């Protein structure tokens, strides 16, 4: 676990993790939007790498991925975006979230080497099962890049333990059985599931998929080490306006998630 990630989860309050799709609507503007998240109070920034078949994502992030691909965004472009963010935000943890095919196209070790050069702290690949991640895990450990594996509400105890053991940055609990997307209500059993996942010797546990309000951040944060907000941010980016207006809208929304 990098020192930046360790520090993000060492505070008394749960870490606020914000998601921005790299290249949506283009790379320069997504840089400003990620910086707006940081100004609003984000503790960790998750950058999406666009892919043509984002199976874990709902319509809002799917459309963001389409916009990013249309603007010409590649994995290499997202890595350069991460490097620019690292120069501007030297102490803020950065995680790249994407899918396995583009990583394989670049090559697993070259991709991880570029992550190190860019200052990326962690990588999240939702379509890489922990059971099939041995080679990637070994290469990431050699490079010192943290990994994040997902835990679903339907995960068996054995798979839960495997994901916790393999997550070297933090573990990601998916609050709903389905794809990403803001929801007005989350399953009642989420709090109990989160409580069961947090262990003294285990990695930090964050919860995401569906979180869209300050009330949800507060209620889930009482049971998790961090809370991820994605689609609710991306939907605000998709609304009409200039780049400056979008950045102001995102900053204001992220700040509202920290409201008492």
Give Rg in angstroms.
17 Å
User: Which structural class do the helices and strands define?
Assistant: alpha/beta
How far the N terminus sits from the C terminus, by CA atoms, comes to 30 Å
Q: Could you describe the largest sheet, including whether it forms a barrel?
A: 9 strands, parallel
Low-confidence segments: none
Q: What is the percentage of strand-forming residues?
A: 5-15%
Helix proportion of residues, in percent?
40-55%
pLDDT averaged over residues? 91
Subunit organisation of the chains: single chain
| Secondary-structure element series | HEHEHHEHHEHEEHEHEHEHH
Shape: globular
Describe this structure in words.
- With 260 residues, this protein is α/β, with parallel strands linked by helices.
- The chain contains twelve helices and nine strands.
- Helix 2 (27-40) runs parallel beside helix 12 (243-257) and helix 4 (75-88) packs parallel to helix 6 (108-118).
- It is globular, with a radius of gyration of 17 Å.
- The model has no long low-confidence stretch (mean pLDDT 91).
